[in-house]
Amino acid sequence: MGSQAPKAPNGRYAQITGWGMYVPEKVLTNTDLARAVDTTDEWIVSRTGIKERHIVAGERETTATLAARAAQEALLVADVAPGDLDLVIVATVTPEYAFPSTASLVQDALGADKAGAFDLSAGCSGFMYALSLAADVVRAGGAEHVLVIGAETLSRIVDWTDRNTCVLFGDGAGAVVVSVCEARCGVLASVLGSDGSGGDVLILPAGGSHAPASHETVSSGGHFAKMNGREVFRFATTIIPKATEQVAQKAGWQIADLALVIPHQANTRIIESAVKRLNMPLEKFFINLDRYGNTSSASIPIALCEAIREQRIKGGDKLVLVGFGAGLTWAAVAIEWGIPMPVKPQRPERRWFGRLRFAFAGVRSIFRRVERHVYNWIMGPVGKDDWRGKLRKRTDALRERLRGK
Ligand code: UT7
């Protein structure tokens, strides 16, 4: 499946207007890992290209906090107020909870009080699925601004005694704002795919409804990610060139037209294989996995931010973003970059005002929690017909009137 920007446009296109990334400060090098498991810097670099990764430290850093930091930056770049967002989508395989969604927590942290919010699970392809969906919603007229985030704390589901997996993954978040535009640019085509028969190739076996958490699931390590690396490798080397060709064709482009390909950052050998199959120069592929490892849903938006920072993207460039991962899933998006680069630096006072708004959102969130608590404490249980029940009915009616319902 996938989509294509219409040839006879309804005047609506969807382009990326803001971008931001955030990674935790703590860095774990290959040498650090070699002290914990039977591995070497030489093995990790030669087999994967990874030199170091960032990981969260302590309970205060979670998928939602990383996501919110990346999102704040993206909103500041786009100069879009949180209150103007229509939708917040967080792609993640390491959500804060099964429910509520991480997206709802981020929506609250940002003060995006008019936005719907939901999480999207499509393995490492999650951000690409979310981006494609966001562009479709914007083009169809269902939204003006959608915040799309890929955020992960994979260090929390990695078995730090398993050298097959622990050397590969890192934590981080990347976000983009997808906004309506009139010129034919932005996300022009997408390709989404899934082959569920490969579900067991990359899996977190326990903690879901299939194997709820129990002493047994914990003692057998069922709450850690399991992967058949060779199978994923084989799948990735085929699907990246295939999906790239398909999405370019859908957008009406030749492979030679592409200015930059931003692939999922899992392994340099996977990327090099795709480069060969597509017969493209390696310089046209953006690679930063040496510093972050595989950050799953966050890898492509983080790479996009760094590509922009390194001035690898110009206005009018034709880009393909392409990912693959658990599911098995894959996704590619063709983007004609609509914004003249580099973007003009924002006035400091405007940025300052934006940051103040985020601080206010935090205070408002605390106030709402306290208010809900106090209200329920004073009013007692719902449905009671005593004086407290009557007071609750009156207060509810007044609140609804004040909210204009
Ligand atoms: O986002 C999607 C998620 N995952 C991926 O994209 C991963 C895709 N797969 C890969 O990147 C590669 O398959 C790996 C990097 C995971 C593994 O590379 P490989 O070249 O496929 O190695 P292998 O699994 O064939 O293992 C070769 C050897 C094995 O030893 P024996 O059985 O040949 O004696 C492994 O036990 O390397 C050993 N090995 C290690 N040695 C040192 C595996 N991990 C390590 C390690 N350090 N960390």
Q: Can I get a quick summary?
A:
The chain has 405 residues and is α+β, with helices and mostly antiparallel strands. The protein is built from 13 helices and 14 strands. The protein has a five-stranded mixed sheet with strand order 1-9-14-13-12, with helices on both faces. Strands 2-8-7-5-6 form a five-stranded mixed sheet, sandwiched between helices.
Q: How many helices does DSSP assign?
A: 13
Number of domains: 2
What are the segments in which pLDDT stays under 50 over at least 5 consecutive residues? none
Strand order of the largest sheet: 1-9-14-13-12
N-to-C series of helices and strands: EEEHHEHEHEHEHEEEHEHEHHHEEHH
Cα-atom radius of gyration: 22 Å
Q: Output the CATH topology of the largest domain.
A: Peroxisomal Thiolase, Chain A, domain 1
Q: Mind telling me which CATH architecture of the largest domain this is?
A: 3-Layer(aba) Sandwich
End-to-end CA span: 39 Å
Shape: globular
The CATH homologous superfamily of the largest domain is termed Thiolase/Chalcone synthase
Mean pLDDT level: 94
Structural class: alpha+beta
CATH class of the largest domain: Alpha Beta
Bound small-molecule species: oxa(dethia)-CoA
Instruction: Estimate percent helicity.
Output: 25-40%
